[in-house]
Amino acid sequence: MKQTLEVLGFLAGVQGLAGLVSEFAGWDWGIVYRFDFLDGYELFASIALLVLGGALIAAAESRNA
User: Fold this and answer.
1) What pLDDT sits at residue 58?
2) How is 12-55 classified by DSSP, letter by letter?
3) What pTM does this model have?
4) Angle, CA of 55, 22 and 9, to the nearest 5°
């Protein structure tokens, strides 16, 4: 379970970072740009993914295993 949380946290963090870089560089790369309902909210969704990734990694570190 700890490794699963770490992997999910890492992937969420990478996608959040990719979304931020894409937002400021003008690219359309990352999972945030695949969902039409996030159109116009890519920056906020990328920040939320970064926070989610950090929370998942913190949860993984707090587990005893």
Assistant:
1) 94
2) HHHHHHHHHHHHHHT---SGGGG-GGGTT-HHHHHHHHHHHHHH
3) 0.86
4) 20
Please give the tally of structural domains in the chain: 1
Lookup result for tokens 């990734």: 53
Question: What distance in Å separates the CA atoms of residue 45 and residue 31, rounded to the nearest whole number?
Answer: 10
Hey, CA dihedral for 25, 30, 44, 35, is it positive or negative?
positive
**CA 11 distance to own-chain centroid:** 6
Q: What is the pLDDT of residues 5-54, one digit of tens each?
A: 999 999 999 999 999 999 899 888 888 888 999 898 999 999 999 999 99
